[in-house]
Design brief:
Layout: H1 2-32, H2 47-59
Helix pairs in contact: 1-2
Length: 93
């Protein structure tokens, strides 16, 4: 019995996640649609809805954003410098 209740709970959880994902995607889409008359369908700042959309996607294991370039010649990688033999900033007075 517990196993069946757990499966039902998982189904409800999945349905709610999908509903929130669809709702947030619809609201984001509606916030960017501008009919020919110049008046937007909905007028709000989509930042909060975008965070809900991203969170919903993350709950399914998906990420939205720029893909990082993982080449071996990555210019953004930190450079490690060995300063053990330098005398910069050391005064022997």
């Amino acid at each position: 019995m517990e196993e069946q209740e757990e499966k039902e709970g998982n189904r409800v959880e999945t349905v709610v996640k999908i509903a929130v994902l669809i709702w947030s995607a619809g609201m984001l889409t509606a916030s960017y649609i501008e009919p020919p008359n110049g008046k937007k369908l909905v007028d709000f700042d989509p930042t909060f809805i975008a965070s809900i959309f991203s969170g919903s996607l993350a709950s399914f294991g998906l990420q939205v954003g720029k893909k990082k370039n993982n080449n071996n010649n990555n210019n953004n990688a930190p450079k490690i410098v060995n300063n053990k033999d330098t005398k910069v900033g050391i005064s022997n007075t």
